[in-house]
Amino acid sequence: MNNQKGYVVLIVTFFIMIIMLSVALTMSSQIAFEQKTATSAVKSTQSYYAAESGIEDALLILRRNPQLYSASGVINYTLNVNGATAYVAIPNINPGGTRAITSQGNNKSMVRSIQTVYAMDKQGISFYYGVHVGAGGLSMGNSSSIQGNVFSGGNITGSGTITGNAIVSGDNYIKDITVSGNVSAYNCLSNAHVGGNLIYFQGQTPTCQVTGTKTAQSSAIPDQDLPISSNQITTWETGLTECDSATVTLLSGNTKTASLGPCKISGSLTLGNTTTLIVTGTIYVTGNITLGNTDTIKLDSSYGSLGGVIIADGTISIGNTATLSGSCVPSCVQSSSYLLLLSTNSSSSAINVGNTLTATGAVLYTNTGGVNIGNTASVREVTGYKVTLGNTFTLQYESGLADASFTSGPSGSWKVTSWT
Fold this sequence. Notes:
Elements: H1 2-64, E1 74-81, E2 84-91, E3 98-107, E4 110-120, E5 122-125, E6 131-140, E7 145-147, E8 150-152, E9 156-158, E10 161-162, E11 166-168, E12 173-175, E13 178-179, E14 183-184, E15 187-189, E16 193-194, E17 198-201, E18 209-210, E19 214-217, H2 230-237, H3 245-251, E20 257-260, E21 263-265, E22 269-271, E23 276-279, E24 283-285, E25 289-291, E26 296-299, E27 308-312, E28 316-318, E29 323-325, E30 339-343, E31 351-353, E32 358-366, E33 370-373, E34 378-389, E35 394-396, E36 404-407, E37 414-419
Parallel strand pairs: 6-8, 6-9, 6-34, 7-10, 7-35, 8-11, 10-13, 11-14, 12-15, 13-16, 14-17, 16-18, 17-19, 20-23, 21-24, 22-25, 23-26, 24-27, 25-28, 26-29, 27-30, 28-31, 30-32, 31-33, 32-34, 33-34, 34-35
Antiparallel strand pairs: 1-2, 2-3, 3-4, 4-37, 5-36
């Protein structure tokens, strides 16, 4: 009996020791796991801040050199951060005017990654009409054509063709113009032809030819503001430093090529004949802009699909056989990169264009003045207080103009749009 009691005590003691050992091992394992987790968390946090340091370093590099470029398409480098390493990749500017910068932090195989999108600061401008005219009205020459819609705050007269719709606000009329689409106006007179329907003010007697229906309404067509506000123009003009005088002088000679912008010219800008101006940022001219014959103004390819701006407080005069275009990336048929040539002058000749202008990548704009375009010209969009189009003028509106974006250029302001 005593031997059996001793055996039982031995067995119980053995099991108690096993249980205690199991508890001890479990606690040790838990402590080791928590220590490993805590160490991993510290390493992971260090990796994250290494990655963040890589992003900050890349943004500092781009602030100093916004047009940083690599022939391979991306710049890769490493940055050591207190024992951890950041692997940074800075791609070239894409056609949308952005860079998706990536940084991978690595601390003893603990990896954290960050991506930041760095984009040109841009402003969206909506040009809903091929031609948008203020109270001065629209005059179209023989065989002139607007392939798109037209809005006018004044009379539409002449002998041209509008392939889209025509809207005339207030108590103004349309006369002698052929419109393939619908017309809304106070009245429709003389030899005008309307291929669609006509809406006119009650009490008036339309004398034009209408293929569709005629509907009288009790209220006149309301006016519409021009698409660019004076505040937006002031924003583009503000903060620019003076342009390099040597470059401005160079451009005044014949057969010269130079890049300019973003900058301000306190005075006038004159281009000689057969001269090419490559716009690398917003150009603001306090005086007049005068182009010779066979001149070219185009946006630098780094604009990608974004538009650029040239502003003159004075008049803009464009000689014969001139070419105005956007970035032409990937080709000059680029549907979303436009050169905006804008005059704040209020004279009836704020913008004067000679014959044989090719500006299928350009927008001509004056908020208070007149636009006069010569014969055989091709333009993408025209806006002005008053617009006069010459013979055989052609405008082919692009749908991208309804959602166009303009920027101060690759050398201008940039901003972080996402941090992931």
